[in-house]
Amino acid sequence: MSTLIVPPHVPSVAEDCEQLHKAFEGWGTNERLIISILAHRNAGQRKAIRHAYAETYGKDLLKDLDKELSSDFERLVLLWTLDPPERDAVLTDEATKKWTKSNQVLVEIACTRPSKGLILVREAYHSRFKRSLEEDVAYHTTGDFRKLLLPLVSSYRYEGDEVNLRLAKSEAKILHEKIKGKHYSDDDVIRIVATRSKAQVNATLNEYKNEFGNDIIKDLEHDDDNEFLPILKATFECLVYPENYFEKVLREAINKRGTDEGALTRVVATRAEVDLKIIKDLYHKRNSVPLHRAIVKDTHGDYEKMLVALIGEDDA
Amino acid sequence: MSTLIVPPHVPSVAEDCEQLHKAFEGWGTNERLIISILAHRNAGQRKAIRHAYAETYGKDLLKDLDKELSSDFERLVLLWTLDPPERDAVLTDEATKKWTKSNQVLVEIACTRPSKGLILVREAYHSRFKRSLEEDVAYHTTGDFRKLLLPLVSSYRYEGDEVNLRLAKSEAKILHEKIKGKHYSDDDVIRIVATRSKAQVNATLNEYKNEFGNDIIKDLEHDDDNEFLPILKATFECLVYPENYFEKVLREAINKRGTDEGALTRVVATRAEVDLKIIKDLYHKRNSVPLHRAIVKDTHGDYEKMLVALIGEDDA
């Protein structure tokens, strides 16, 4: 389900390093060369390159990339090159520091990563920022938002398939009552979304639909005045329909007047090695235009080329 | 700081297994032999024995121990023989199911284990109970207790020594205001105890003492009507003065009319390989009697012998 294309014969790590080093030399930077290497190596290979680069040249590859590249292209290359947990640590740190009520990045990372993956993010956060993710989230948020976000980023959900249908029934009823009464940040609503396994939440939402007729996502849609509702809705979407959630983020980023490069970059960099193929197909279906065509229309230059490469549509 | 005595020449794992198997054979059980082996092997050795026992006899050593032993002795041997994260998973599961407002076992385990240790407990909880620790804790608790316990058991605190003194000052002030106003379960009080690193909480309590004259533990002592206060106090104690906390648990368990074997067993089984030596010294100082003498006075039989062995006072 990855869109990453790794060539059948990958050059040695030493060769990749040498080529990257060359790309930085002389007048100007060889962006095409950088894309041809980094956009076609998986996480393990990129990590090995970064390691070997430091050994060979005594410098951090990321710092050199930072020096040589600029704007959206730079951001995409840097995020992509980072090890996934470290990348998520950087993204959660930014989302926490610049936190606004409409920022859904914390929910996205807390709810779409595998349980152990989220622990690795928290570990990377420790080593990079000398603090814990949850302490920063708790410190920078307040009220209902803290009440939801703190347990979400601290979760270590059970990942087995076992589902308790009796419980799903009773918790579907709780959700329905609370949502009907507009008690969106009720203790039990938050307990259910923040602690139950994804399989269990899914079973609960099925019971909800069977029993009360509507998809819960639909029931969370009609309340323009409530600032908390969108983040609760995003939580359910990320837990149960992550690919649909990401398709929507891409759609909104691309349809926005001026394009939301931040969101586009984030989704492509974080999902290319995970489920971007599914997201891409969903995008095509939902928008009647292939994702790469929409991207080519909305972006340009090296940024465009790197995006197209990562979504698996260049000629590599 | 461990009280465990492992003999200089440990028999092979196969020999230990054979001896344990012999101890179960024929009329009666050879409890002395069981103690002489299990009470003198470290966690890694006990794990290897359990593994080899299953390989050799096709049976779970813990089930055989369960069948052959009884009452307090059985409980101590079983808890001790379990791998530490699995043992904590069992203890937290029991504490959650039989949860009462005065039960401090969840706080004790959440706040005295190293950060990675607590993650291992949550992992062991997944595999043993097919649910997450935090979902069970959230489900079985309510109100202020859930508000404190859920983030405590979900925490993955930063463990570096770095301390932010400015922050310690400002959070000491918050704690003082809230405690003075008896807002013990205030959002910020819980945020501070549940997310800050132990070093940071310690710095905050030092600032508290410098600025406001009293130890925070003292300020949390005078309110008989408040059910939440004892658990908040235990949280601070476990985070900053764990050995004092455990000494107090032992003291109260032993001084109680009839002895609280549950608490005595738990502290000895969980701390013997960690810091029981310090706790033992504190106990002696605080009670003017050595811990082993107090134990011998209050317990008897194989249970007494196993306790004495684990606190490092038998002739092994």
Automatic annotation (TrEMBL), chains A, B:
SMART domains: ANX. Keywords: Annexin, Calcium, Calcium/phospholipid-binding, Metal-binding, Repeat. InterPro entries: Annexin (IPR001464), Annexin_repeat (IPR018502), Annexin_repeat_CS (IPR018252), Annexin_sf (IPR037104), AnnexinD_plant (IPR009118). It holds the Pfam family Annexin. A pair of annexin repeats may form one binding site for calcium and phospholipid. Belongs to the annexin family. This is Annexin. It comes from Coffea arabica (Arabian coffee). The gene is LOC113712061.
